[in-house]
Specification:
There is one protein chain. By secondary structure, the protein is mainly α. It contains 14 helices and 5 strands. Helix content is about 60%, strand content about 5%. α5 runs parallel beside α11 and α9 packs antiparallel against α11. The longest helix is centred in the middle third of the chain and has 38 residues. The chain binds protoporphyrin IX containing FE. Protoporphyrin IX containing FE (HEM) binds next to α6, α9, α11 and α12.
């Protein structure tokens, strides 16, 4: 009993004194005056950060290294004589401190990583949100297009004869590219959306297994994608050089809208766009993927920004000022963001490609399935290519279903 009474008596000051202390703090809190905090973070700064708003950090970055501006040794905060602990931490945070380390790995001298939260918020916020909306938008657009336009038919019907369109090596390269890209896309999306999109449904344990498997597949299948990309480039680049015919093709809307298909050689202008998108965006995804696969080894963004600045580009839309230097970790975060953004764009393009190569157009799939297309399909979509093949004696035409020997 005595013990309880003692405890109650001990709590009395807490009950009366604490709220008053808090009230006093509130009353005394400086409005928004940096001068009142001696040039340090103000209450308003802290509140802005808690509300997730931008806080101008420049005043802190500039507040480093000036011994004169520091507190005198006789002051409460002047124990280090001019410099102070907060100053050292500020210098660490803004990469201004002179640090040496026995650890030889890249980034070992970076003790405070300042930009991680901004990257995390971008990845979980705009990147996931707009990336997801974009893919859903492409699917919605294609569904609408299918409803309005229906399947693009072979105008003259099937001829009963086929012509060889892609050799085995071409189909092998295509399916290696397609298979690896689909696996990379699916495992990449699992990694990006898993925390919010899968854990609530399948739980942490199952997701942990799935995420580990996804990471393994993603890291290893990337090599197949890069190999296929190189194969496809060398196999088809000659047929994808832009020419004047492409302008006619665009002027006629590619024949998808309206009737009649503009003349084309082996690849029409639409396919050339697919080809160069795959090569350029796929190449860029591969480069940023390699930077992620070998952390801190490939510092592409610092080099790119340096070149941009040399050309006088100091500001980028949606990004802001082009930085003069990047920390190793910031380099990695740029690689991740770029990898994901470009992947979303290529996924959107490829979804449209898959649609037109299968459901969207009668007779198209055979080109990559068996390698032989109906002669009427070939004449409608690639008239100049058929003429070329026939006049050069290379057209392997045979009745539908006949084996190559017949
Ligand atoms: C299941 C998925 C896919 C299907 C059904 C498909 C179908 C096709 C077909 C039928 C063609 C030949 C078109 C023609 O004869 O002119 C083709 C070509 C091509 N495919 Fe795919 N494809 C798929 C996935 C992919 C993926 C994932 C990529 C790249 C990442 C890709 C890249 C290409 C390229 C560069 C061409 C040559 C240019 C063109 O015809 O557009 N394909 N595809």
């Amino acid at each position: 009993m005595l013990r309880w009474m003692c405890l109650l008596i001990a709590l009395i000051p807490l009950v009366f004194v604490l709220p008053q202390a808090t009230l006093a703090q509130d009353a005394e809190a400086p409005a928004d005056s940096r001068a009142e905090t001696g040039g340090a973070t103000t209450l308003e700064d802290i509140l802005r950060r808690q509300r997730g708003e931008d806080v101008d950090m420049e005043f802190r970055r500039e507040n480093i290294g000036d011994a004169e501006a520091g507190a005198a040794t006789t002051d409460q905060l002047g124990t280090l004589g001019g410099a102070s602990d907060p100053e050292l931490w500020r210098a660490l945070r803004f990469g201004e401190a002179d640090i040496t380390s026995q650890v030889r790995s890249p980034g070992a001298t970076l003790l405070v990583q300042d930009s991680g939260m901004a990257w995390l918020e971008f990845r979980e916020g705009p990147l996931s949100k707009w990336g997801g909306y974009f893919l859903l938008g492409v699917l919605g657009f294609l569904a609408l297009f299918f409803l309005l336009r229906g399947r693009i038919r072979i105008g003259a019907g099937r001829s009963g004869f086929t012509i060889v369109r892609f050799k085995f090596v071409e189909r092998f390269a295509h399916w290696l590219l397609a298979g690896s890209f689909i696996l990379l896309g699916v495992t990449g999306l699992i990694t990006l959306f898993g925390r919010k999109g899968l854990i609530p449904f399948i739980g942490h344990d199952a997701y942990s297994t799935l995420a580990t498997l996804s990471k393994w597949v993603h890291n290893n299948v990337s090599w197949a994608f890069m190999l296929a990309l190189v194969m496809v480039f060398f196999l088809w680049v000659i047929h994808n050089i832009p020419n004047r015919l492409d302008l006619v093709w665009f002027a006629k809307g590619g024949g998808i809208i309206g009737s009649g298909h503009p003349p084309a050689k082996k690849f029409n202008a639409g396919q050339k766009i697919i080809f160069w998108s795959v090569i350029i965006l796929g190449g860029s995804i591969s480069a940023s993927g390699l930077a992620l696969l070998f952390p801190f080894e490939l510092n592409m963004f610092a080099a790119t920004f340096e070149k941009m600045r040399a050309f006088g580009i100091t500001e980028l839309p949606f990004y802001g000022p082009v930085p003069e230097a990047l920390t190793p970790h910031s380099e990695m975060m740029h690689a991740q963001a770029w990898h994901a953004i470009v992947s979303f764009i290529l996924m959107g393009i490829i979804i449209a490609h898959i649609y037109i190569g299968s459901l969207g157009m009668e007779g198209a799939y055979d080109a990559m399935g068996s390698g032989e297309v109906d002669l009427n399909w070939a004449k409608e979509h690639h008239s100049l290519w058929v003429e070329e093949m026939e006049s050069s004696g290379l057209a392997e035409e045979r009745p539908t279903g006949a084996t190559p020997a017949e």
